[in-house]
Amino acid sequence: MSGDAYHITQPHNDGRGAILAMQRALEQSGLLSSDIDYINAHATSTTLGDAIEAKSIEYVFANHATSGALALSSTKGATGHLLGAAGSVEAIFAVLAIHHGIAPLTINLEKPDPCFHGSFTPLTASKEMPIRAALSNSFGFGGTNASLLFTSPP
């Protein structure tokens, strides 16, 4: 977790809260960014928030994020923003992605951030792939940020 308390409704322009939450999840797990197969992004479809999250993911995951090896999607478009329950439902999607070996699709995504090339799951189909580790991002009002990292059993 992290708390940047930058603004009541928008993240800091440099993504420091999101970056810190993702880095802490990786550090506490003992995994490297290249060990993560899938990210369930917070992605509320706001121009500013989504751009900052995308840049934060690119910062933390570097070449792994832009290589197409990392699957990235948002399930919020399918469920709506569930406010306080959003993080739990998205964490369940991350766990199910590991269990079923399927990265969920991102509905209504027509213009993904070009920096991620093939990382976003397609608009119309989920991506079948082995998923050993998945990260679920939840970034809330007031700069409250949480990233949960789940792995498959050994």
UniProtKB/TrEMBL annotation:
It comes from the Eukaryota. The keyword Transferase applies. InterPro entries: Beta-ketoacyl_synthase, Ketoacyl_synth_C, PKS_Beta-ketoAc_synthase_dom, Thiolase-like. Pfam families: Ketoacyl-synt_C. PROSITE patterns: KS3_2 (PS52004). Its EC number is 2.3.1.41. Keywords: Transferase. GO terms for molecular function: 3-oxoacyl-[acyl-carrier-protein] synthase activity. Residues 1-152 form the Ketosynthase family 3 (KS3) domain. GO terms for biological process: fatty acid biosynthetic process. One of its GO terms (cellular component) is mitochondrion. This is beta-ketoacyl-[acyl-carrier-protein] synthase I. It comes from Dendrobium catenatum. The lineage of its organism: Eukaryota, Viridiplantae, Streptophyta, Embryophyta, Tracheophyta.
